[in-house]
Amino acid sequence: MPSLNVSFTDDEMEGVRAAAAAEGKSLKQYLHDLGVREMHRKRFVAGAASWADRLREEFDAAFPEEIPPSERDRGATAA
């Protein structure tokens, strides 16, 4: 099985050890799970963005009064 050596500063290592202990995991298991969790998070975000893109036209048709934040007038003054 492939493995990896990772370098940390003393402060970083202290923080990583504390985080692993807080989760009740060994340092090795904590770092493994962290990498896998990030991989899953990125996959989820990409899927959610794809889902939103597919439904954007349908949403815009159903809610024409909704203005996307990127298209809202910025800097409008209060009456």
Question: Would you kindly provide a written description of the structure presented here, covering whatever features stand out?
Answer:
The structure is a single chain. The protein is an all-alpha fold. It has a domain at 31-62. The chain contains 2 helices and no strands. The chain has helices at 10-22, 27-62. Helix 1 (10-22) crosses helix 2 (27-62). The longest helix is centred in the middle third of the chain and has 36 residues, at 27-62. It is elongated and about 55 Å long. The protein starts with 9 loop residues before the first helix and ends in a 17-residue tail after the last helix.
Care to give the gist of this entry?
The chain has about 80 residues and is mainly alpha-helical. It has two helices and no strands. It has a domain of about 30 residues.
Topology:
Layout: H1 10-22, H2 27-62
What are the key terms here?
mainly alpha, 2 helices, 79 residues
- The gross shape turns out to be elongated
Beta strand count: 0
**What would you call the structural class?**
mainly alpha
Strand percentage, roughly?
under 5%
In DSSP terms, counting alpha (H) and pi (I) runs of 4 or more, how many helices?
2
Q: Would you identify the regions where 5 or more consecutive residues have pLDDT less than 50?
A: none
Largest sheet: none
